[in-house]
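Entry under discussion copied across for reference:
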Amino acid sequence: MTYTYKTQGTCSTQIQFDKDENNVITNVVFTNGCNGNLKAIAKLINGMKAEEIAEKLAGNLCGRRPTSCADQLAKAVLSV
């Protein structure tokens, strides 16, 4: 199933991804943000379970912001 998550506090405005019945995440696409870095993150986590992604990326901050695109991805995959 395809989900869209509206991000908060980041340059990226939304994250779209597929999540299957086993919580495996694929086809991650960020809208806006640091294009090269976000494409790399999407490739690295493709095929991982939502819980694994959240464990690795939750709490990652961007500069002085209280979140990051990676942190928002961790929240997104667990929210649905």
User: Anything to note?
Assistant: The beta strands are 2-6, 14-19, 25-31.
